[in-house]
Amino acid sequence: MLSESDEQGTVFDEEEPGKYLEDAVDEPSRVRPAIEFRDVHLSFDDVTILNGISFSVRKGETKIILGRSGGGKSTIIRLVLGLLKPDSGTILIDGEDITYYNEEQMMGVRQKIGMVFQEGALFDSLSVFENVAYRLIERGVAYEEVEPEVRRMLRFVDLEDAIDKMPDELSGGMRRRVGIARALIGDPQIVLFDEPTAGLDPPTARTICELAIKLRDLQDVSSIFVTHEMNNLRYLSSEYATVDDEGKVIFEKEGEKLCLINTEVMMIRDGQINFSGTDEKLEHTDDPYIRTFIYGK
Amino acid sequence: MYPVYRFLFELQEISLLIWRSFVNLRRRPRYPGEVLRQMDLIGVGSLPIVLLTGFFTGGVLVLQTFPTLEYYSIQSEAGRSVATSLIRELGPVLTALMVSGRIGSAISAELGSMVVSQQIDAMRAFGTNPIRKLVAPRIIALIFMLPLLTIAADIFGLIGGGVVASLIYNQETHVFIASVRNGISTSDLVGGMIKPFFFGLIIGAVSCHKGLSTTGGTVGVGRSTTNAVVIASIWVIIFDFFLSKALHFVLDMGPI
């Protein structure tokens, strides 16, 4: 991951700069979407939550889902994880049709996915270490292997000092960051963020967006980022992470040098996709609903 | 939903939860550490209140029945009276009600809080089956610990009865003990030990189901907790009647 230079080496090859791109195009797993929804419908009693949702998230892409609270954004994430089942339609994860998978079958699929919950959803009775190590302990990984992994993840979210603390000793922002570390352990190739910055102060929200950017640009992780905060959209769709000459991660704004094509925005309204495209297209749209959402008037 | 439909729906959900808990026992990963932790929490943790309940119930039984027995000049049968009532009925039922209040509420509140704070979703998202990790260990611990707690309550009930008979009614201790020994049969002991297994299952299944079906935030947790204790207690008392009838038939128990 970030601290491991050998893994970053797979992203950039100085001798053959074009090789990575060629490999990427030839590799079937890159062409196959990491997440795909095909005409998904879901209702609770008489209330329609999702009404014919179709979209896909490519490998290494971040899909930002915008929409009002209670508009079905988090439902999409719960469907990806198989915590809910659609009334009709198809959901594919990494090309695998999981729509009618039972709980046991979903357990295998969920190993590929990391999830960051709205309020962190840390296990109250477990320490930070045990929370982050949870997935590995459940898989029966030996303690000697678990500890360095947990430390690596906590370093990634800059919380190594909190390793022995209990969740109730942490601030809201720290809880979210521990939640991110917990979601990333085991190096899942898909990470789902369910309003990870809700209720946080702007600097902490920015830190969490930076973590999502690092995952996207340095680790090739596919993600869905559910939010209703426009600041998150601005950070995620206009900045990218790279490594400078000293090996330090820096964030730069897209511009003449580089244009971000691995981030798309999708807006949900009344259970349907109201908009799908880049942030630039979103900003220039004439749709009054979207303009109200973006500019607040 | 009509009350009858709601009742049948709840019954179906609780039955499914019990079925899934037992099916999941055969699958890996297993959680023996969690079972032991729950046994400690339920068994050792509930011991003081169960012993106190047993002791004073035995005491009050002798306190209330001794004058009547004395009226008919059969006060030497006080031990038999308290032993039969305690071992057949009061020991299992009162222990179950005490555990339902203490543990049923705790289980329901803990699982309910985990539901509303998305911890159950997180558990499922990270590949853990909550029934295997949370429900099965609690039900198993209750099924095994409730009979042991009942034995402890019965013994302390008999001691309580003996103390009252001796200190208040000046009955010789050996008379009381002889009466107890003559009064209880093997079928009484077997019947008194079978009941707590079922009561443990009822308390575990109802409180886990109520906890996991919590909705409506922290207010919902409070509602689930109350419902868990009330429903488990009522079911214990109703089931006790039918179980007693069945045990009378199966074990051919004699009169008190």
Largest interface: pair, residues per side: A-B, 24 and 14 residues
Number of domains of chain B: 1
CATH topology of the largest domain in chain A: Rossmann fold
What's the oligomerization state?
heterodimer
**Portion of residues in helices of chain A?**
25-40%
Strand content of chain A: 15-25%
Q: What percentage of amino acids of chain B are in beta strands?
A: under 5%
Radius of gyration of chain B: 21 Å
Task: Give the number of domains of chain A.
Answer: 2
Examine the secondary-structure arrangement and name the CATH architecture of the largest domain in chain A.
3-Layer(aba) Sandwich
Mean pLDDT of chain A: 83
Order of helices and strands of chain A: HHHEEEHEEHEHHHEHEHEEEEHH
Measured between the Cα atoms of the first and last residue of chain A, the distance is 42 Å
In total, the number of strands of chain A is 12
The first-level CATH class name of the largest domain in chain A: Alpha Beta
Identify low-pLDDT runs of chain A. 1-18
Over all CA atoms, what is the radius of gyration of chain A? Answer: 19 Å
Q: Largest sheet of chain B, if any?
A: none
* Outline type of chain B: elongated
How does this structure look, described?
The complex is a heterodimer of chains A (297) and B (256). The longest helix of chain A has 18 residues. In chain A, the strands form 3 sheets. Chain A has a 6-stranded mixed sheet with strand order 6-7-8-3-11-12, with helices on both faces. Chain A has a 4-stranded antiparallel sheet with strand order 2-1-4-5, covered by helices on one side. Chain A is built from 12 helices and 12 strands. In chain A, helix 9 links the parallel strand 7 and strand 8. Chain A is α/β, with parallel strands linked by helices. Chain A has 2 domains: 172 residues, P-loop containing nucleotide triphosphate hydrolases (Rossmann fold, 3-Layer(aba) Sandwich), CATH 3.40.50.300; 65 residues, no CATH class. Helices cover 37% and strands 24% of the residues of chain A. Chain B is mainly alpha-helical. Chain B has one domain. Helix content of chain B is 86%, strand content 0%. Chain B is built from 8 helices and no strands. In chain B, helix 3 packs parallel to helix 7. The mean pLDDT of chain B is 91. Classes of the chains: A alpha/beta (297), B mainly alpha (256). Chains A and B meet through helix 5 and helix 6 of A and helix 4 of B.
